[in-house]
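Lab notebook, bench 4. Continuing the backlog of folding jobs that were queued last week. Each job is logged with the same field layout so the records can be merged later without manual cleanup. Today's entry covers 2-C-methyl-D-erythritol 4-phosphate cytidylyltransferase, a 254-residue chain. Filled in by technician R.K.

JOB TYPE: sequence-to-structure
TARGET: 2-C-methyl-D-erythritol 4-phosphate cytidylyltransferase
LENGTH: 254
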Amino acid sequence: MSDDSRPSPPAGPSATRTAAVIPAAGRGVRLGPGAPKALRALGGTPMLIHAVRAMAASRAVGTVVVVAPPDGAAEVRSLLDAHALPERTDFLVVPGGQTRQESVKLGLDALPPGHDIVLVHDAARPLVPVDTVDAVIEAVRDGAPAVVPALPLADTVKQVEPAGTPGEPEPVVATPERALLRAVQTPQGFDRNTLVRAHETVTGEVTDDAAMVEQLGLTVVAVPGHEEAFKVTRPLDLVLAEAVLARRRLNDGF
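JOB STATUS: finished
OUTPUT FIELD FOLLOWS
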């Protein structure tokens, strides 16, 4: 939930023109069998609810669109209705597509007019702090067409020649300079018209929406991310997320 003791952003239209789209239609097979990844419990609450609350915690976010599994929109609507969410924020649920890219486009299509900034956030990043959300929004307000939160890499990175069979040794072909690399997180923020144009003109699968804007020839800028905005992909990530959430509840009453 949001912290009502935080100061509000400056009054005016810019404070209410941000929307967030949360694609939550993936199955999350790497977490193992069971419910779709976004519906897995974290601290007794579905990860999706944590992600929705993380977006709504920003006072700049007036609307959150959740893109549900194609056959699961009713279930997701019931889920949102069953959990306490900020009354100042509007929540919409739409069925998703077969790919993340299709799902984001469907979420964009469902956005009502009047939102100049759009955030796209992974449901599998349930613990992103509100300060990171606000930093992304502010950078778009300052004129960037696309903004990503990002962290420097701790590990050395190797480029390899992929093996034909999983598990086989792979020859290393290069060692990129680590200081020039960043690990990108979400929410990613966009000028709405730019993101709509990217989804209408860029074809082929991409790993994130910022890559689509890059293909338009526009500059994507990075702002500092946060270590707690990690993506819950594997069982070990879920263990770490539970630990972070437990610490928050102990220290902050989160």
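OBSERVATION: The first strand starts at residue 18 and ends at 23.
SIGNED: R.K.
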